[in-house]
Amino acid sequence: MSLADSVAAVAKRLSEVSQHSYQNPYTALDWPETVDPDVDWFSSPELLSLAGTPEWDAMPEAARKRLAFYEAVNFYSLNIHGEKSLMAGLAERLYRKEMIQVADYLHHFLDEENKHSIFFGGFCTRYARVYRSRQFSVNEEEVPRDVGDFLFFAKTMIFEEIVDHYNWLQARDERLHPVARYINRNHHVEEARHLIFGRQLVTELWRTQQWDAQTVDDVRGYLAAFITSSWREYYNPDVYADAGLTDPWEAAETAWQSPAQREHRRTVTAKCLGFLASEKILPEEPVDAF
Amino acid sequence: MLSEPDFRAELRAWVSEKSGVEVTDHSPIFADRTLRSVHIPELLLLMERLRGTPIDVEDLRPTDFRDIDTLATRFGVRS
């Protein structure tokens, strides 16, 4: 089976744009020797995982800025871990016969994800550390190749849709340190192309699938769990410990359960869920994500 | 601090809430696909919160996740 001409045409157009905007991540940004997390904002305060909670209300401004710095490090770390899996999956699919029509764009996708990780890793290793991932695989059973391809690109799209909401807002937030704004802006510009490709490809793979009802249920259950799991990692106790909170695990649980944060997650995910619902991929929102 | 029976009870309750399936301490929760790998970040966060210390992710093995009995022995509250 080959991909529809429409997907191949989009991939060709996106490849041309990627070629035109090809960049060197080692010269694109002047990194300052040091940064001051207590003085500058590195994340937009309204987007932080404690925003709208009593803990946040009780914080002095310097503590809020410190939290915003470590949340930026967590955001970049989540991207690094997500991009590691993404790059592995893209490399695995390069020049496979089902994907041959989009191979040229997969090269750009892979290249751009690697460059994003250079920026994210550059920040984390210069000024803090890369936070650990809690992702671990115990039972990744063999699934049919078309199911695996669909899940891979659907997960990629969901992850990037959530991230892009943060990038888009933070790239425009003039309160943020210039390095933070640059990293968010640069990521948004290239992710916008990846999202166009992702939506086209996910739509096409879903439209042409011929799975039985059990497989469809499994795929939907997996994607719902993936959305919840992706969000849960934004509430990282390691961040709260570095920011000086006394009980980082309780802080994570309280923030996750707070009405303001439930509403935040719902707002950020709305566009993505709207797409998944309109394509009848995920007709109902995940019950435990919001 | 949680006792080991309470640790196990919290895990059983969480698995049931996630999956809609009642499990025992010896149910093969991943092998029978009650849970999948996508649930592990949440499971690790829960166990870290219950025991109050981080779990070294670099040191994990697939066999650590066989069932709740194994999880409690490997990651539960130290006596």
UniProtKB/TrEMBL annotation, chain A:
The family database entries (InterPro entries) matched by this protein are listed as: AurF/CmlI, Ferritin-like_SF, RNR-like
UniProt-listed Pfam families: AurF
Superkingdom of this protein's organism: Bacteria
- Spell out the protein name for this chain: Diiron oxygenase
Species of origin reads Streptomyces prunicolor
